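Sample entry (244 residues):
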Amino acid sequence: MKKTALITGATRGIGNEIAKTFAIDGYNVVINYLNSEETAENLCRQLYEKGYNAMKVKADVSNREEVEMMIKTVQNKFGDIDVLVNNAGIAQQKLFTEISNLDWDRIFDVNVKGVFNCSQMVLPKMIQNKKGKIINISSMWGLTGASCEVHYSASKAAVIGLTKALAKEVGPSNIQVNCVAPGVINTDMNADLNNQDIEDIKDQTPLGMIGSVKDIAETVLFLASDKANFITGQIISPNGGMVI
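Predicted structure, serialized as C-alpha coordinates:
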Protein backbone atom coordinates (compact mmCIF):
# COMPACT_ATOMS: atom_id res chain seq x y z
CA MET A 1 0.00 0.00 0.00
CA LYS A 2 1.36 3.40 -0.99
CA LYS A 3 2.28 5.87 1.70
CA THR A 4 0.94 9.42 1.55
CA ALA A 5 3.02 12.56 2.01
CA LEU A 6 1.57 16.03 2.50
CA ILE A 7 3.96 18.82 1.54
CA THR A 8 2.90 22.33 2.46
CA GLY A 9 3.95 25.20 0.22
CA ALA A 10 4.73 22.70 -2.54
CA THR A 11 4.42 24.81 -5.67
CA ARG A 12 7.82 26.51 -5.69
CA GLY A 13 11.46 25.95 -4.90
CA ILE A 14 12.23 23.42 -2.20
CA GLY A 15 8.61 22.33 -1.74
CA ASN A 16 8.17 21.68 -5.46
CA GLU A 17 11.29 19.51 -5.56
CA ILE A 18 10.24 17.63 -2.42
CA ALA A 19 6.89 16.82 -4.04
CA LYS A 20 8.57 15.48 -7.19
CA THR A 21 11.12 13.48 -5.19
CA PHE A 22 8.46 11.82 -3.05
CA ALA A 23 6.33 11.02 -6.10
CA ILE A 24 9.27 9.33 -7.83
CA ASP A 25 9.83 7.31 -4.64
CA GLY A 26 6.29 5.95 -4.86
CA TYR A 27 4.34 8.15 -2.45
CA ASN A 28 0.88 9.56 -2.94
CA VAL A 29 1.81 13.25 -2.99
CA VAL A 30 -0.38 16.06 -1.69
CA ILE A 31 0.57 19.46 -3.05
CA ASN A 32 -0.56 22.21 -0.72
CA TYR A 33 -0.74 25.74 -2.11
CA LEU A 34 -2.33 29.07 -1.30
CA ASN A 35 -2.09 31.47 -4.24
CA SER A 36 -0.38 29.49 -7.01
CA GLU A 37 -3.26 27.32 -8.20
CA GLU A 38 -2.09 27.17 -11.81
CA THR A 39 1.39 26.08 -10.76
CA ALA A 40 -0.08 23.45 -8.44
CA GLU A 41 -2.31 22.17 -11.23
CA ASN A 42 0.61 21.99 -13.65
CA LEU A 43 2.71 20.06 -11.13
CA CYS A 44 -0.14 17.61 -10.53
CA ARG A 45 -0.54 17.12 -14.28
CA GLN A 46 3.19 16.53 -14.77
CA LEU A 47 3.24 13.90 -12.04
CA TYR A 48 0.04 12.24 -13.26
CA GLU A 49 1.35 12.01 -16.83
CA LYS A 50 4.41 10.17 -15.49
CA GLY A 51 2.20 7.67 -13.70
CA TYR A 52 2.45 9.11 -10.18
CA ASN A 53 -0.38 9.80 -7.73
CA ALA A 54 -0.83 13.44 -6.76
CA MET A 55 -3.50 15.88 -5.68
CA LYS A 56 -3.55 19.59 -4.98
CA VAL A 57 -5.24 21.16 -1.97
CA LYS A 58 -5.58 24.87 -1.29
CA ALA A 59 -5.15 25.99 2.31
CA ASP A 60 -3.59 28.83 4.26
CA VAL A 61 -1.55 26.91 6.82
CA SER A 62 -1.95 29.75 9.31
CA ASN A 63 -5.74 29.31 9.19
CA ARG A 64 -6.92 26.52 11.50
CA GLU A 65 -10.20 25.87 9.71
CA GLU A 66 -8.56 25.67 6.30
CA VAL A 67 -5.95 23.22 7.58
CA GLU A 68 -8.64 21.04 9.13
CA MET A 69 -10.52 20.96 5.83
CA MET A 70 -7.30 20.16 3.95
CA ILE A 71 -6.54 17.19 6.19
CA LYS A 72 -10.07 15.82 5.79
CA THR A 73 -9.86 16.21 2.00
CA VAL A 74 -6.57 14.30 1.89
CA GLN A 75 -7.87 11.52 4.14
CA ASN A 76 -10.96 11.12 1.95
CA LYS A 77 -8.76 10.73 -1.13
CA PHE A 78 -5.70 8.80 0.07
CA GLY A 79 -6.47 7.71 3.62
CA ASP A 80 -4.06 8.32 6.49
CA ILE A 81 -1.17 10.77 6.09
CA ASP A 82 2.11 8.97 6.73
CA VAL A 83 4.48 11.91 6.24
CA LEU A 84 3.96 15.61 6.87
CA VAL A 85 6.52 18.03 5.48
CA ASN A 86 5.99 21.48 6.98
CA ASN A 87 7.65 23.47 4.22
CA ALA A 88 5.37 26.49 3.78
CA GLY A 89 7.11 29.65 4.87
CA ILE A 90 7.67 33.29 4.09
CA ALA A 91 10.66 35.58 4.50
CA GLN A 92 11.27 39.31 4.69
CA GLN A 93 14.34 41.51 4.97
CA LYS A 94 13.93 44.60 7.14
CA LEU A 95 15.85 46.52 9.74
CA PHE A 96 14.68 45.43 13.18
CA THR A 97 13.60 48.99 14.00
CA GLU A 98 11.32 48.99 10.94
CA ILE A 99 9.55 45.69 11.53
CA SER A 100 5.85 46.36 12.12
CA ASN A 101 3.48 44.37 14.30
CA LEU A 102 1.86 43.15 11.09
CA ASP A 103 5.22 42.01 9.68
CA TRP A 104 6.07 40.13 12.87
CA ASP A 105 2.67 38.47 13.21
CA ARG A 106 2.50 37.39 9.57
CA ILE A 107 5.94 35.76 9.69
CA PHE A 108 5.07 33.86 12.86
CA ASP A 109 1.56 32.97 11.66
CA VAL A 110 2.89 31.18 8.59
CA ASN A 111 6.29 29.93 9.75
CA VAL A 112 5.36 28.78 13.25
CA LYS A 113 1.60 28.63 13.62
CA GLY A 114 1.44 26.84 10.27
CA VAL A 115 3.69 24.10 11.63
CA PHE A 116 1.58 23.93 14.80
CA ASN A 117 -1.72 23.73 12.89
CA CYS A 118 -0.66 21.07 10.40
CA SER A 119 1.19 18.94 12.93
CA GLN A 120 -1.64 19.00 15.44
CA MET A 121 -4.16 18.04 12.76
CA VAL A 122 -2.23 14.98 11.50
CA LEU A 123 -1.03 13.68 14.86
CA PRO A 124 -4.22 12.04 16.19
CA LYS A 125 -4.18 9.47 13.36
CA MET A 126 -0.42 9.01 13.60
CA ILE A 127 -0.67 8.39 17.34
CA GLN A 128 -3.54 5.96 16.76
CA ASN A 129 -1.50 4.10 14.13
CA LYS A 130 1.69 4.22 16.21
CA LYS A 131 3.71 5.51 13.27
CA GLY A 132 4.37 8.68 11.30
CA LYS A 133 6.99 11.18 10.24
CA ILE A 134 6.94 14.94 10.60
CA ILE A 135 9.71 16.91 8.92
CA ASN A 136 9.88 20.64 9.53
CA ILE A 137 11.77 22.99 7.23
CA SER A 138 13.63 25.66 9.18
CA SER A 139 16.75 27.57 8.07
CA MET A 140 20.38 27.89 9.07
CA TRP A 141 19.38 31.41 10.14
CA GLY A 142 17.26 29.75 12.81
CA LEU A 143 20.53 28.36 14.14
CA THR A 144 22.72 31.44 13.81
CA GLY A 145 20.46 34.45 13.23
CA ALA A 146 20.61 36.78 10.24
CA SER A 147 21.04 40.54 10.26
CA CYS A 148 18.00 42.39 8.90
CA GLU A 149 15.94 39.21 9.27
CA VAL A 150 15.31 39.11 13.01
CA HIS A 151 11.65 38.12 12.74
CA TYR A 152 12.42 35.43 10.14
CA SER A 153 15.35 34.09 12.17
CA ALA A 154 13.26 34.06 15.35
CA SER A 155 10.44 32.17 13.63
CA LYS A 156 12.81 29.56 12.23
CA ALA A 157 14.46 29.17 15.66
CA ALA A 158 10.97 28.56 17.06
CA VAL A 159 10.47 25.76 14.54
CA ILE A 160 13.68 24.15 15.79
CA GLY A 161 12.49 24.34 19.40
CA LEU A 162 9.09 22.97 18.43
CA THR A 163 10.75 20.06 16.62
CA LYS A 164 12.85 19.02 19.62
CA ALA A 165 10.00 19.26 22.12
CA LEU A 166 7.44 17.49 19.93
CA ALA A 167 9.90 14.68 19.18
CA LYS A 168 10.16 13.95 22.89
CA GLU A 169 6.40 14.04 23.33
CA VAL A 170 5.37 11.75 20.46
CA GLY A 171 8.41 9.46 20.48
CA PRO A 172 6.63 6.89 22.67
CA SER A 173 4.04 6.61 19.87
CA ASN A 174 6.80 5.69 17.38
CA ILE A 175 6.54 9.03 15.56
CA GLN A 176 9.72 10.72 14.38
CA VAL A 177 9.90 14.51 14.25
CA ASN A 178 12.95 16.08 12.63
CA CYS A 179 14.00 19.37 11.13
CA VAL A 180 15.95 20.34 8.01
CA ALA A 181 17.63 23.76 8.22
CA PRO A 182 18.90 24.62 4.72
CA GLY A 183 21.74 26.97 3.99
CA VAL A 184 21.72 29.24 0.95
CA ILE A 185 19.81 27.37 -1.76
CA ASN A 186 19.32 28.27 -5.40
CA THR A 187 15.61 29.19 -5.29
CA ASP A 188 13.35 32.10 -6.21
CA MET A 189 13.67 33.33 -2.63
CA ASN A 190 17.31 34.14 -3.35
CA ALA A 191 16.73 35.41 -6.88
CA ASP A 192 17.60 38.96 -5.82
CA LEU A 193 21.22 37.93 -5.17
CA ASN A 194 23.55 39.29 -7.84
CA ASN A 195 26.59 37.47 -9.20
CA GLN A 196 28.91 39.12 -6.70
CA ASP A 197 26.65 38.16 -3.81
CA ILE A 198 26.68 34.55 -4.99
CA GLU A 199 30.46 34.51 -5.34
CA ASP A 200 30.84 35.99 -1.85
CA ILE A 201 28.58 33.27 -0.42
CA LYS A 202 30.58 30.59 -2.21
CA ASP A 203 33.77 32.03 -0.74
CA GLN A 204 32.27 31.77 2.76
CA THR A 205 31.19 28.16 2.19
CA PRO A 206 33.78 25.42 2.72
CA LEU A 207 32.36 23.35 -0.14
CA GLY A 208 32.52 26.43 -2.38
CA MET A 209 29.04 26.11 -3.82
CA ILE A 210 25.40 27.11 -3.49
CA GLY A 211 22.99 24.34 -2.51
CA SER A 212 20.33 22.95 -4.80
CA VAL A 213 16.70 22.13 -4.09
CA LYS A 214 17.57 18.50 -4.80
CA ASP A 215 20.04 18.53 -1.89
CA ILE A 216 17.21 19.45 0.47
CA ALA A 217 14.59 17.15 -1.07
CA GLU A 218 16.86 14.11 -0.77
CA THR A 219 17.54 14.93 2.89
CA VAL A 220 13.82 15.17 3.58
CA LEU A 221 13.16 11.90 1.75
CA PHE A 222 15.80 10.15 3.85
CA LEU A 223 14.22 11.40 7.08
CA ALA A 224 10.84 10.14 5.87
CA SER A 225 12.21 6.68 5.09
CA ASP A 226 12.54 3.62 7.31
CA LYS A 227 16.30 4.22 7.22
CA ALA A 228 15.71 7.08 9.65
CA ASN A 229 13.52 5.23 12.13
CA PHE A 230 16.03 5.77 14.95
CA ILE A 231 16.46 9.47 14.21
CA THR A 232 14.20 11.98 15.96
CA GLY A 233 14.45 15.47 17.37
CA GLN A 234 17.42 16.23 15.14
CA ILE A 235 18.30 19.35 13.18
CA ILE A 236 20.07 18.54 9.93
CA SER A 237 21.51 21.57 8.16
CA PRO A 238 22.62 21.03 4.55
CA ASN A 239 24.61 24.25 4.17
CA GLY A 240 27.89 23.32 2.55
CA GLY A 241 29.74 23.86 5.81
CA MET A 242 28.83 27.53 6.19
CA VAL A 243 27.46 26.70 9.64
CA ILE A 244 29.30 23.99 11.57
